[in-house]
UniProtKB/TrEMBL annotation, chain A:
<dbReference type="InterPro" id="IPR016164">
    <property type="entry name" value="FAD-linked_Oxase-like_C"/>
</dbReference>
<dbReference type="InterPro" id="IPR036318">
    <property type="entry name" value="FAD-bd_PCMH-like_sf"/>
</dbReference>
<dbReference type="Pfam" id="PF01565">
    <property type="entry name" value="FAD_binding_4"/>
</dbReference>
<protein>
    <submittedName>
        <fullName>Glycolate oxidase FAD-binding subunit GlcE</fullName>
    </submittedName>
</protein>
<dbReference type="GO" id="GO:0071949">
    <property type="term" value="F:FAD binding"/>
</dbReference>
<feature type="domain" description="FAD-binding PCMH-type">
    <location>
        <begin position="37"/>
        <end position="216"/>
    </location>
</feature>
<dbReference type="InterPro" id="IPR016166">
    <property type="entry name" value="FAD-bd_PCMH"/>
</dbReference>
<dbReference type="GO" id="GO:0003824">
    <property type="term" value="F:catalytic activity"/>
</dbReference>
<dbReference type="InterPro" id="IPR016169">
    <property type="entry name" value="FAD-bd_PCMH_sub2"/>
</dbReference>
From TrEMBL, chain B:
<feature type="domain" description="FAD-binding PCMH-type">
    <location>
        <begin position="48"/>
        <end position="226"/>
    </location>
</feature>
<keyword id="KW-0560">Oxidoreductase</keyword>
<dbReference type="InterPro" id="IPR016169">
    <property type="entry name" value="FAD-bd_PCMH_sub2"/>
</dbReference>
<dbReference type="InterPro" id="IPR004113">
    <property type="entry name" value="FAD-bd_oxidored_4_C"/>
</dbReference>
<dbReference type="InterPro" id="IPR051914">
    <property type="entry name" value="FAD-linked_OxidoTrans_Type4"/>
</dbReference>
<dbReference type="InterPro" id="IPR004490">
    <property type="entry name" value="GlcD"/>
</dbReference>
<protein>
    <submittedName>
        <fullName>Glycolate oxidase subunit GlcD</fullName>
    </submittedName>
</protein>
<dbReference type="InterPro" id="IPR016171">
    <property type="entry name" value="Vanillyl_alc_oxidase_C-sub2"/>
</dbReference>
<dbReference type="Pfam" id="PF01565">
    <property type="entry name" value="FAD_binding_4"/>
</dbReference>
Length: 437, 497
C-alpha cells in the first residue's frame, strides 16, 4: 500500500480506501479525463460520514496532497484539467436523505445521493427538485450542484443557485462549515450556497445540501412547433412578450428529429390553465405558419426524458449563454460552422448547449484547427451578445489548446482572492476552474 | 477576522479630507455641517445613532470609485447608504467615517424589453422600475412594503423580500449582474445580462452582503411580464391555527400563490384605526391575504380551490378582488402595517425571523407567551407562505428601560426561531442590530469561513466595518474566533450591546 493510502486507512479504515489499481477501469478513465498529467492519483477515498470526509481533508492539508472530489464521476471530464491529483474523494457513500420536511417543501441530503433516488422519494409526496432529470441515472446531487446545471425547467424555477438554501461543506483544512439553513427565506450571513454552486470542487467539498422543493404539477403538456428559423424567432419573441407562462421554452436544433429546428414549450399546472395556454400558443403558431405537435401525458414525459439523454460522453459539448435576442443568429452560425450540431437553448435565460460530433474531425490537424476556429467564432458571437461559451467536454488534446471557460470579465482578481482564502495551498482540484484556479 | 483599521478620533485631519473630497466631487456633493449630517445619523432602526464625519453624494461610478480610493489610501472607514429605510442598522454610520449616499444615482440606464432586463443606478427607488416598464406590460417582482422609498442598491445589499416573493423569489433571484466599486477603489463587473456566466457566482455573494464587500453602482435586473389575471382573496378566521392550517393546505395542494400573508387581530385593528381600509373585519382573530396570478382559467380554478380550503378550515367570510383598485385596497392595510404601528405608539420595534412554515401555530403561541413574560403585547404581520415572521412590539423610548426590555423580548423571539430550525433574519438583514445573535445560528467555523469572503474583498476592513459579524468590541470579549471551537455557548446572554 502506498504511503497516502496507508495514512488515510489509519484514519478512516481500509474499507474507506480504494487503491488506484483496484478502481474500476471505467472510473479510472473518467478520473484521468479530468487530469492534465499522466500520473494517476494514489487512491480513492470513500468517506462514510461528513466527519470522515473532514478527516481525509485534514490529513491531505497536513501533507499538501492535491484532491479532487467525485460524485458519480459521470461528468468528471467537464471543466478544465487539474494539474495532478494525489487523492480522489468520492462521495458515493455519503448518500443519505438527512431530512425531508414534507410540509415545508425542503429536503436535506448528502452529496453522493443520486438525483434519481432523490426524485423517487420526493415523488411519493408529489414533490420534486425542479431540475431536469437529464443524466440523472448517474448524476449525484453534489456533482450537479458543483457544475451548476439546471436545464429547461430554469424557465420557471430558476437555476440550482435559486433552490439551494443551505450547505455544509468540508473546507481545505477539514473543518465542516455551514451557511444558509433549512428555511426558504433567510438572509443571515453571506450566501455561500451561491459561491459553491458551480465552483467545480475548487473551494471545498459539499457534504450536505438543503433545497427548496416544488409540488409536482397535475397536468403537463408540451407543444412542438416547427418551421423555419424566422418563424421560430418571431414566435419565441411573441411568447416572451405574452402573458404565457411555460415552465420550459427551448429552441432546439436536431437533425435526427423529424422537426429539424423547433420551438418546444411545456406547460404545467391545473388542466384548465394548461388547456387555455396551449390553445393560445397554437394560435400564435398558426399566425406564423408553424406545424404544431401536441404531446400529452406519457408522450410529454417521454419527449423530455429523451431530450435529456441527448447529451453524450463522446462529443464536444459546450455550454453557452447569450441575450435571448441573439439566439436565432447563434443557431444559424452554429449550423454554418458545425453542420449537424445539436443545439438546445433556453428561451428566456439565453443559456443552453451545443453538441458537436467529433470522432472523425480529429483525425488530422487541419480538422482540429477548423474545430478550434469554429469554436472561436461561436464564442465571439455569444460574447458580443453579453454571453459566453464554455467547452465542457472535449478530447484532452483540444482542451489543452484553448481556454475552456472563456471568461472575459474583469473580476478574475476577485475570484483569485476568494480561491486563496478557501484553498490557500492550492490543493482543491488545482487548475480546473476559470483562470486556472 | 477582519481588522478594522485603527482610527483615532482626534488624529484625523478631516478638513484636509473634505478638501480632497471637494476636489473629487463638487462642493455641494460633500456635506460636513452638523445640521446637514443630522438626517444621516440613523436608518430605519432609529434607536441606534452615530454621526458620520462627512457625507458624500456621488453621481457616477467614477465618483464613487474616487471617494472609495481616497478612503482606502487614507484608511478611512466608509459606510454606504441608500434611502436609509433599512431596519437592522446596516446604513448606521460608524464613528469617524465617510458616508457615501447614493441618492444622486437615480437613473434608469437601459430597458431591454426583448430580453426582459433593465439596468439601473443603485439610488433608483424600487417602485420606479415597475412604473417605468408597466406601460409595456412588465414589472419588477420584489416589492418590499417600503417600495415607495427604498433604493435598489439597498434592496441588493439586504436581499430584500416583499409580499410577492413567495412565487417569484426575493431580490437575489432577480439580479443578473452588478457593477461594483470594491473597497480598494477598483471597479469590477460581475454576473452580466445572462445568468451562470463562467466563474464563481460573485453576484450571488454580493447580494445580501449588506455593503460589507463594496458599493454597487449599477444593477442589471430581470423584469417579468405582468400576469394576465390576478385575484386577491381576503379570508377571516376565528383562530390562528385555522389560518395556519389553511396556509398549509394551499401549499400542499400544489398551489403557489404569488403572496400569502397573515395579520393577527392586534395588527389588523391597528391598521383599521390608522388607515381605515374598512375591509379587515375587526373581530377576526387572524386574516389571510392570498394573491394568485397566472392564466385566467388557472386563477379562476385555483381561487375556487382556495376558497373551499378556507371554508373547510372555518373561515367566516371571503372577499375576492380582481379589479386593480379593489386589489390594492385589500393590500393597502398590509403594506401600511408598520407605518400604522408608528402612528399608534411613539415607538415600535419590528422583529424579522423565519421559521419552518409548519411550526406557525405553535410558534405564534410561544411568541404570545414571551410577550406576556416581558410585559408587552406583540402584533404579528407576516409572510405566512414562507414562514417569515414580523412580530411588532409597541413601546415608548422616552421611558427609560423600555427599549432594553423590548430588545430582550425581540432577542428571545429570535432564539425561538432558531430553536425550531429557522433563521434570525428573513429579509431585514443582520446589520448592527443582530450581529451578536449570529453565534446562535452559526458556529465559529461557519462565521470564520464567511469572513474569508470578507477578507478577500474588503482587505482593510474599511467597508461598513463592524456590521453582520460579532466582534469582541461589539458583542463582548467572548466573541473571539480562530480556534475553530463553538463560541455560541459563550456568547449566549449577550443581548445588550
Ligand atoms: C449544458 C449542460 C447540460 C447538462 N444537462 C444536464 C441535465 O440536464 N441534467 C443533469 O443531471 N446533468 C446535466 N449535465 C451534467 C450535470 O450537470 C453534472 O455535470 C453531472 O450530472 C455531475 O454528476 P456526477 O455525480 O457524475 O459528478 P462528477 O462528474 O463526479 O463531478 C462533477 C464535478 O463536480 C465536482 N464535485 C462532485 N461532487 C462534489 C462535491 N460533493 N463537492 C464539490 N464538488 C464536487 C467534481 O470534482 C467535478 O468537478 C449538464 C451539464 C451542462 C453544463
Ligand atoms: C416601513 C418599512 C417597511 C419595510 N418593509 C420591508 C419589506 O417588506 N421587505 C424587506 O425586505 N424590507 C423591508 N423594509 C426594510 C428596508 O426597506 C429594506 O431593507 C431596503 O432594502 C433598504 O433599502 P434602502 O435604500 O433604504 O437601504 P439603506 O437602509 O440605506 O441601506 C441598507 C443596507 O444597504 C447598504 N447599501 C445601500 N446601498 C448600497 C449600495 N449601492 N451598495 C452597497 N451597499 C449598499 C447599506 O450599507 C446598508 O447596509 C422595510 C422598511 C420600512 C421602514
Amino acid at each position: 500500500m502506498n504511503k497516502i493510502a496507508a495514512l488515510l486507512s489509519d484514519a478512516i479504515g481500509s474499507d474507506g480506501i480504494q487503491l488506484w489499481d483496484a478502481v474500476e477501469p471505467r472510473q479510472q478513465l473518467q478520473v484521468m479525463s479530468a487530469i492534465a498529467t499522466e500520473a494517476p492519483p494514489a487512491c480513492v477515498a470513500l468517506p462514510n460520514t461528513s466527519d470522515q470526509l473532514g478527516q481525509v481533508m485534514a490529513i491531505a492539508a497536513q501533507h499538501g496532497w492535491r484532491i479532487m472530489p467525485m460524485g458519480q464521476g459521470s461528468k468528471l471530464g467537464w471543466g478544465g484539467l487539474a494539474h495532478g491529483i494525489d487523492i480522489v474523494i468520492s462521495t458515493a457513500r455519503l448518500n443519505r436523505i438527512v431530512e425531508h420536511a414534507v410540509g415545508d417543501y425542503t429536503v436535506t441530503v448528502e452529496p453522493g445521493l443520486k438525483i434519481t433516488a432523490l426524485q423517487q422519494v420526493l415523488a411519493e409526496q408529489q414533490q420534486s427538485l425542479a431540475i431536469d432529470p437529464a443524466f440523472d441515472q448517474l448524476a449525484s446531487v453534489g456533482g450537479v450542484v458543483a457544475t451548476a446545471d439546471t436545464g429547461s425547467l430554469r424557465q420557471r424555477y430558476g437555476g440550482l443557485r435559486d433552490m439551494l438554501i443551505g450547505v455544509q461543506f468540508a473546507r481545505y483544512d477539514g473543518e465542516l462549515a455551514r451557511a444558509g439553513g433549512r428555511v426558504v427565506k433567510n438572509v443571515a450571513g453571506y450566501d455561500l450556497m451561491k459561491l459553491l454552486t458551480g465552483s467545480y470542487g475548487s473551494l471545498g467539498i459539499l457534504s450536505e445540501l438543503t433545497f427548496r422543493l416544488y409540488p409536482v404539477q397535475r397536468c403537463s403538456r408540451s407543444l412542438l412547433l416547427s418551421a423555419g428559423l424566422q418563424a421560430i424567432e418571431a414566435a419565441t419573441a411573441e411568447v416572451r412578450l405574452s402573458g404565457l407562462t411555460p415552465v420550459a421554452m427551448d429552441v432546439v436544433v436536431d437533425r435526427t428529429a423529424a422537426e429539424g429546428t423547433s420551438l418546444v414549450a411545456r406547460f404545467q399546472g391545473i388542466e384548465a390553465g394548461v388547456e387555455e395556454q396551449t390553445e393560445r400558443l397554437k394560435k400564435i403558431a398558426t399566425t406564423h405558419g408553424m406545424a404544431c405537435k401536441q404531446l400529452d401525458g406519457e408522450a410529454d414525459e417521454a419527449y423530455w426524458r429523451q431530450s435529456a439523454q441527448a447529451i453524450r460522453a463522446d462529443t464536444l459539448l459546450c455550454k453557452v449563454g447569450l441575450r435571448p435576442s441573439g439566439i436565432p443568429w447563434l443557431i444559424e452560425l452554429a449550423d454554418m460552422v458545425f453542420p449537424g450540431a445539436q443545439v438546445r437553448l433556453y428561451g428566456s435565460s439565453g443559456l443552453g448547449w451545443i453538441q458537436v460530433e467529433i470522432a472523425e474531425r480529429l483525425t488530422d490537424e487541419r480538422l482540429e484547427n477548423e474545430l478550434l476556429a469554429g469554436l472561436a467564432k461561436v464564442r465571439s458571437h455569444c460574447q458580443k451578445n453579453a454571453g459566453f461559451l464554455t467547452v465542457l467536454q472535449a478530447p484532452k488534446a483540444v482542451k489543452a489548446k484553448l481556454d475552456v471557460w472563456g471568461y472575459e470579465g474583469n473580476a478574475l482578481d476577485v475570484m483569485k482572492a476568494i480561491k486563496e482564502k478557501f484553498d490557500p495551498n492550492n490543493q482543491l482540484s488545482p487548475g480546473r476552474f476559470v483562470g486556472g484556479l | 477576522m477582519v481588522a478594522v483599521a485603527a482610527v483615532s478620533k482626534t488624529s484625523r485631519d478631516w478638513r484636509g479630507v473634505v478638501r480632497s473630497l471637494e476636489k473629487l466631487l463638487s462642493a455641494n456633493q460633500v456635506m460636513r455641517r452638523k445640521e446637514e449630517l443630522l438626517v444621516y445619523e440613523c436608518d430605519g432602526l432609529t434607536s441606534y445613532r452615530e454621526r458620520p464625519a462627512v457625507v458624500t453624494l456621488p453621481k457616477t461610478t467614477e465618483e464613487v470609485a474616487a471617494v472609495v480610493k481616497l478612503c482606502h489610501e487614507q484608511n478611512i472607514p466608509f459606510v454606504t447608504r441608500g434611502a436609509g429605510t433599512g431596519l437592522s442598522g446596516g446604513a448606521l454610520p460608524v464613528a469617524e467615517c465617510v458616508l457615501i449616499v447614493t441618492t444622486c444615482m437615480q437613473q434608469i440606464l437601459d430597458i431591454d424589453y426583448d430580453n426582459q432586463r433593465v439596468v439601473v443606478q443603485p439610488g433608483v427607488i424600487n417602485n420606479w422600475i415597475t412604473q417605468a416598464v408597466s406601460g409595456a406590460g412588465f414589472y419588477y417582482a420584489p416589492d418590499p412594503s417600503s417600495q415607495l422609498a427604498c433604493s435598489i442598491g439597498g434592496n441588493v445589499a439586504e436581499n430584500s423580500g416583499g409580499v410577492h416573493c413567495l412565487k417569484y423569489g426575493v431580490t437575489t433571484n432577480h439580479v443578473l449582474g452588478l457593477k461594483v466599486v470594491l473597497p480598494d477603489g477598483e471597479t469590477v463587473d460581475i454576473g452580466g445580462a445572462v445568468p451562470e456566466m463562467p466563474g464563481y457566482d460573485l453576484t450571488g455573494i454580493f447580494v445580501g452582503s449588506e455593503g460589507t464587500l463594496g458599493i454597487v453602482t449599477e444593477v442589471t435586473l430581470r423584469i417579468l411580464k405582468v400576469p394576465e389575471a390576478v385575484q386577491v382573496i381576503l379570508a377571516d378566521f376565528t383562530s390562528v391555527e385555522a389560518a395556519g392550517e389553511t396556509v398549509s393546505d394551499i401549499i400542499s395542494a400544489g398551489i403557489i400563490p404569488a403572496g400569502l400573508e397573515m395579520m393577527d387581530n392586534f395588527s389588523l385593528n391597528a391598521v383599521e384605526d390608522v388607515v381605515a381600509t374598512n375591509c379587515y373585519p375587526r373581530d377576526a382573530v387572524a386574516i389571510l391575504l392570498i394573491e394568485i396570478d397566472g392564466a385566467a382559467a388557472e386563477v379562476a380554478a385555483s381561487a375556487k380551490q382556495i376558497a373551499a380550503m378556507c371554508y373547510k378550515n372555518g373561515a367566516r367570510q371571503l372577499t375576492h378582488a380582481t379589479d386593480v383598485q379593489e386589489r390594492l385596497r385589500l393590500w393597502k392595510g398590509r403594506k401600511a402595517a408598520f407605518a400604522a404601528m408608528g402612528k399608534l405608539s411613539p415607538d415600535y420595534y419590528v422583529q424579522d425571523g423565519v421559521i419552518p412554515r409548519t411550526r406557525l401555530p405553535e410558534v405564534l403561541q410561544q411568541i404570545e407567551a414571551l410577550g406576556a413574560k416581558h410585559g408587552y403585547r406583540v402584533a404579528n404581520v407576516f409572510h405566512a407562505g414562507d414562514g417569515n415572521l414580523h412580530p411588532l412590539i409597541l413601546y415608548n423610548n422616552n421611558i427609560p428601560g423600555q427599549l432594553e426590555e423590548v430588545e430582550a423580548l425581540g432577542g428571545d423571539i429570535l432564539k425561538l426561531c432558531v430553536s425550531v430550525g429557522g433563521s434570525i433574519s428573513g429579509e431585514h438583514g443582520i446589520g448592527a442590530d443582530k450581529r451578536c445573535y449570529m453565534p446562535n445560528m452559526f458556529s465559529a467555523t461557519d462565521l470564520e469561513t464567511m469572513q474569508w469572503v470578507r477578507g478577500a474583498l474588503n482587505k482593510k476592513g474599511l467597508a461598513n466595518p463592524t456590521k453582520i459579524f460579532p466582534t469582541p468590541k461589539t458583542c463582548g470579549e467572548s466573541a473571539q474566533f480562530g480556534n475553530g471551537k463553538g463560541v455560541s455557548e459563550r456568547l449566549e446572554g449577550l443581548e445588550n450591546f
